[in-house]
């Protein structure tokens, strides 16, 4: 908060101080020891007599003296002191709880330092009033100047009734009093004041100093010294202080308190600002209108002095700091002006150093009026603007530290300024924004990816300026490079477009500079997902380059490389490959194997191989490429990070998800540190890590990453950027894995239209979205909708990617799954059986997709009643899944569940039960109670209980399961219908046939509507209803159902299917009964 400064302050030389000049030391040369001692005694007597009898020493009143000024009880502290308990506790620990100063023969000193208005004085006084009884006496020493310090000691001398009061006699008396007195040296702000000589010279006593001057920390370096920077208040205390000062501490509503909280946060919980705001609010009765006034007229409202104050401190916060400003040298003032146009935190010292070091180079290439203004600006900072001087920079920082206007971090590499100080400088001292922008541009000259730590620091400060306001090429070039390197392509686009436009007008379309800017513009378009716009630039640019420079010129090679990448982004992988493959040898011959462009070429070729499903070829390139990149560029270089990211992606493509994860988790943290959270490579790394989590069944971990990633991608790249679409697509997939199929559907249906419009129907990402949408339809039981999407999708995938592309194989597998869901098992089998060999050839036996293919084939065998064939696949498959994915992976759990189902189909119910019972807890732990797969596991366990005759145990599971299924999936979902069917059957087994019938009769119509008359599950429902009719003696109804049912079963499943055989037997029994 405020500090107390008495009025009538004047400085003068200390009274009563003299220099005693000793005579020549030669007079002692032949003297005896007795003579020397006698001479010393006489000299001491003369000196003492001179000092005591000196007329000046008798009654000299120091300037600024006021009677009682040192008396602590005369000092004003707000009666409702708020907060600062941490500081009070620190002072208590230092002075009260330790050994007393006199006992340990050490004077205790504590410095409270910080900005003017931070509440240093009030904290010291509050401590003094709380613990007054712990000290023999407490005095206030006003320390704004030497004369006021002397005046304070003079007042002490008068209070203790010295016969001839002087300031020195007051100080000496304290030095002689071996007691626990406390002196508070208040407002010792003047950096030129040597405060140390005014501290009592003794080994006892207690001293608190309040100051803006952080250099006084030197006085607390001994073990008996300590110091604390007085910073902003805690939020709750700040709100209470504001309400107190506004006269609303006892009558504020919750709405008032929320508004007070908003004001406190806006004022950064700074004490004097809160007191000032509270006073204004009380006068104008405007709590709810204060922020509007503050935001529109900040400088004016922060400059209004306080009319009423508890402590006679009436200066506004801006007026308080203006006192400090007026004492600063011009170089320190200029430094603050620059900083006011930057962010208030982490201001890099390197910005100033680079500006000075780059000045001469920029002036040679880009002279002009704006550049000249930058030179003038730097001349105000440093004696020689073209030569960096650490000593001069240190002097500026030291001066600002002396007034607590700046904090130094990271060993002097960065600086922080309090947000309100930052606002104060900006509001009070307006500069030419274009000069500051040009200054930053000079600092940014020739930045590269090798300097990412500096680039990431400085980008935050460059967000507050607009490069387009400066009509200077060197400014546009610098900011274009900055925004490109940090992945802020929207801002880069504005600047690079301006460069191209200006260069075309001034030098023509074919000038080398124009072509370079055009090349950069093509890259920016590519990063923004505007691949068609990039293509329009890059194709003619490559032709021009080949004509003017030749096909093997490095610039031509780079442009060929860029065009190939654009082709790949447009889904034209074959065109990209035609450009890329021949380039490898040419690039190596022209530039060498270790040239950065050669490395980029190999990485891009590997990416195209991946797009074409040639994962092994990609891996063959990427593994040695990463090692070479680490050797040449270092492990933390952005290109090396990108290559590690790509290799991890290839591991995933090859099904080596654990290997991928080992690379990705440390990579993400490194990428955030080096490139920043918003960099496009960091976003890509986050997505890949999320994909690995999904492959490993860690869907919740994936979701945490992806939801944040989609928001960030929309902010950084825009809602319609292809990468944003891809991330939304992946998020929808995660929702499906977690059983949130409706959330997935909402995203996917929106994406379908967007993908078609922006990328085209044949783009790989469009095909992926169609597939994911079809999978969601399947999860929601909309099997016909899924097939309607998947059949044309498979044909399109074969045309665009080829029959053996991994994505085409996966789509074939998915279509087979949809056929199975519709009960078209023979159609599914026709697709599935040939796939097994293809999956093994293309992906390998242990690839997760190969395992899925085997599982799906086993499921079809089961549906077709080929239980032994299913078992032959599922037993080794489960072992392989445990090895490759782990026992708790959701896919492994599902395969355990399926194997148990096959055991049940074969009548091996105990074997099934051994697998199923431990699964229940695992499913809940891994997927959650409401996940569709968990519900399936409970249903299967209930069925096994039924097969074993444990109908009551089955009922205990099935009744709550049906309620949960209706809630999670809906009443008409096929799985819910199947569960209602199973529950009805359990009621029948328990003899509750009427209850069973009540469930079954409405189910018949629902099954026919949802799945169709010929679906296997519809046939099972009809069979179960017939059984219930039998139990109730309604044999005619049974006969009608069973005759139709047998005919359908023979058509759909075949005469040799076990279910068909059982239905024929049931019909024969019914006919016998009716005879």
What does this structure look like?
This is TPR-like protein. InterPro entries: NLR-like, P-loop_NTPase, TPR-like_helical_dom_sf. The protein has 1075 residues and is mostly helical. It has 49 helices and eight strands. The longest helix is centred in the N-terminal third of the chain and has 21 residues, at 33-53. It starts with 32 loop residues before the first helix and ends with a helix.
CATH classification, class level of the largest domain: Alpha Beta
Structural class: mainly alpha
Radius of gyration from the alpha-carbon trace, in angstroms: 42 Å
Tertiary shape: globular
Count the domains: 7
Question: Span between N and C termini?
Answer: 105 Å
Using the 3D structure, state the CATH architecture of the largest domain: 3-Layer(aba) Sandwich
How much of the sequence is in beta strands? under 5%
Share of residues in helices: 55-70%
State the CATH superfamily name of the largest domain.
Answer: P-loop containing nucleotide triphosphate hydrolases
**Residue runs with pLDDT of under 50 for 5 or more positions:** 1-57, 308-312
* Spatial sequence of strands, sheet with the most strands: 2-3-4-1-5
CATH topology of the largest domain: Rossmann fold
Q: Mean of residue pLDDT?
A: 84
Largest sheet: 5 strands, parallel
Protein name: TPR-like protein
Pfam families: TPR_10, TPR_12
InterPro entries: NLR-like, P-loop_NTPase, TPR-like_helical_dom_sf
């Amino acid at each position: 908060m405020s500090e107390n400064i008495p009025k009538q302050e004047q400085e003068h030389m200390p009274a009563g101080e003299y220099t005693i000049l000793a005579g020549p030391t030669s007079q002692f040369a032949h003297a005896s020891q007795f003579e020397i001692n006698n001479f010393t005694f006489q000299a001491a007597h003369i000196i003492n007599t001179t000092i005591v009898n000196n007329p000046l020493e008798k009654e000299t009143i120091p300037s600024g003296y006021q009677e009682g000024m040192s008396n602590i009880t005369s000092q004003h502290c707000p009666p409702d002191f708020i907060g600062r308990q941490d500081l009070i506790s620190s002072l208590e620990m230092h002075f009260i709880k330790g050994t007393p100063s006199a006992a340990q023969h050490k004077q205790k000193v504590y410095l409270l330092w910080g900005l003017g208005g931070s509440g240093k004085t009030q904290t010291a006084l509050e401590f003094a009033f709380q613990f007054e009884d712990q000290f023999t006496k407490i005095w206030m020493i006003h320390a704004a100047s030497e004369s006021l310090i002397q005046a304070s000691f003079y007042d002490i001398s008068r209070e203790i009734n010295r016969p001839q009061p002087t300031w020195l006699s007051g100080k000496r008396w304290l030095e002689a009093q071996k007691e626990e007195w406390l002196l508070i040296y208040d407002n010792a702000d003047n950096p030129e004041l040597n405060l140390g000589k005014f501290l009592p010279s003794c080994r006892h006593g207690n001293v608190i100093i309040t100051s803006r001057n952080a250099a006084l920390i030197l006085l607390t370096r001994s073990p008996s010294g300590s110091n604390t920077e007085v910073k902003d208040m805690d939020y709750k205390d700040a709100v209470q202080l504001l309400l107190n000062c506004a006269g609303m501490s006892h009558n504020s509503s919750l709405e008032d308190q929320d508004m007070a909280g908003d004001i406190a946060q806006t004022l950064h919980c700074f004490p004097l600002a809160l007191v000032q705001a509270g006073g204004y609010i009380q006068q104008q009765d405007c709590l709810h209108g204060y922020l509007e006034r503050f935001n529109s007229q900040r400088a004016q409202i922060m400059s209004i002095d306080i009319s009423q104050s508890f402590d006679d401190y009436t200066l506004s916060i801006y007026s308080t700091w203006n006192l400090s400003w007026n004492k600063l040298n011009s170089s320190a003032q200029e430094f603050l002006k620059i900083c006011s146009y930057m962010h208030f935190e982490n201001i890099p010292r390197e910005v100033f150093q680079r500006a000075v070091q780059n000045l001469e180079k920029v002036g040679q290439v880009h002279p002009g009026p704006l550049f000249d203004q930058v030179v003038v600006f730097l001349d105000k900072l440093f004696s020689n603007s073209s030569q960096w001087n650490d000593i001069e920079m240190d002097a500026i920082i030291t001066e600002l530290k002396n007034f607590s206007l700046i904090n130094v971090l990271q060993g002097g590499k960065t600086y922080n300024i309090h947000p309100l100080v930052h606002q104060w400088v900006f509001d009070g001292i307006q500069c030419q924004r274009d000069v500051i922008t040009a200054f930053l541009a000079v600092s940014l000259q020739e930045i590269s990816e090798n300097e990412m730590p500096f680039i990431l620091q400085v980008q935050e400060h460059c967000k507050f300026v607009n490069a387009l306001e400066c009509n200077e090429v060197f400014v546009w070039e610098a900011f274009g490079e900055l925004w490109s390197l940090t992945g802020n392509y929207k801002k880069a686009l504005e600047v690079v477009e301006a460069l191209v436009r200006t260069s075309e007008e001034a030098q023509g379309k074919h000038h080398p500079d124009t072509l370079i800017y055009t090349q950069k513009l093509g890259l920016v378009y590519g990063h923004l997902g505007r691949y068609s716009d990039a293509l329009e630039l890059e194709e003619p640019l490559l032709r021009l380059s080949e004509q003017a420079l030749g096909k093997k010129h490095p610039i031509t090679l780079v442009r060929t490389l860029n065009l190939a990448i654009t082709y790949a982004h447009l889904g034209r992988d074959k065109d990209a490959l035609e450009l890329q493959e021949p380039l490898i040898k040419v690039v190596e011959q022209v530039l060498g194997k270790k040239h950065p462009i050669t490395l980029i070429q190999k990485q891009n070729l590997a990416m195209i191989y991946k797009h074409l499903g040639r994962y092994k070829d990609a891996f063959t390139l990427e593994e040695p490429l990463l090692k070479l990149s680490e050797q040449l560029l270092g492990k933390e270089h952005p290109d090396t990070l990108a290559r590690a990211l790509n290799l991890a992606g290839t591991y995933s493509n090859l099904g080596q998800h654990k290997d991928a994860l080992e690379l990705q988790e440390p990579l993400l943290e490194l990428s955030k540190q080096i490139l920043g959270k918003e960099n496009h490579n960091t976003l890509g790394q986050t997505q890949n890590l999320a994909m690995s989590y999904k492959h490993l069944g860690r869907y919740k971990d994936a979701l945490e990453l992806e939801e944040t990633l989609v928001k960030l991608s929309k902010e950084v790249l825009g809602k319609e950027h292809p990468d944003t679409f891809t991330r939304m697509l992946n998020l929808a997939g995660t929702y499906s894995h977690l059983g949130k199929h409706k959330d997935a559907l909402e995203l996917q249906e929106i994406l379908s239209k967007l993908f078609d419009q922006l990328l085209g129907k044949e783009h790989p990402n469009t095909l992926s979205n169609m597939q994911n949408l079809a999978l969601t339809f399947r999860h929601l039981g909309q099997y016909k909708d899924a097939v309607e999407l998947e059949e044309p999708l498979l044909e399109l995938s074969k045309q665009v990617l080829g029959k053996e592309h991994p994505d085409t194989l996966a789509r074939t597998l998915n279509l087979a799954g949809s056929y199975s869901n519709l009960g078209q098992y023979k159609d599914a089998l026709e697709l599935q059986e040939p796939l097994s060999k293809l999956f093994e050839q293309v992906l390998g036996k242990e690839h997760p997709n190969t395992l899925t293919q085997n599982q799906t084939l086993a499921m079809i065998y089961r549906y077709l009643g080929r239980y032994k064939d299913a078992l032959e696949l599922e037993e080794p498959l489960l072992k392989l899944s445990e090895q490759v994915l782990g026992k708790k992976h959701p896919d492994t759990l599902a395969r355990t569940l399926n194997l148990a189902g096959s055991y049940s189909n074969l009548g091996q119910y105990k074997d099934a039960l051994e697998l199923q019972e431990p699964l229940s807890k695992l499913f809940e732990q891994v997927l959650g109670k409401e996940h569709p797969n968990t519900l399936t596991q409970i249903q299967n366990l209930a069925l096994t209980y039924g097969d074993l005759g444990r109908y009551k145990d089955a009922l205990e599971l099935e009744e709550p399961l049906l309620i949960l299924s209706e809630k999670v999936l809906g009443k008409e979902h096929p799985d819910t219908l199947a569960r209602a069917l199973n529950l009805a059957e359990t009621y029948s087994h328990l003899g509750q046939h009427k209850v069973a019938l009540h469930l079954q009769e409405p189910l018949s119509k629902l099954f026919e509507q949802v799945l169709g008359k010929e679906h296997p599950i519809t046939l099972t429902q009809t069979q179960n209803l017939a059984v219930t009719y039998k139990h109730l003696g309604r044999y005619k109804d049974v006969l009608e159902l069973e005759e139709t049912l047998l005919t359908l079963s023979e058509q759909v499943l075949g005469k040799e299917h076990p279910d068909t055989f059982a239905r024929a037997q049931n019909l024969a029994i019914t006919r016998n009964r009716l005879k």
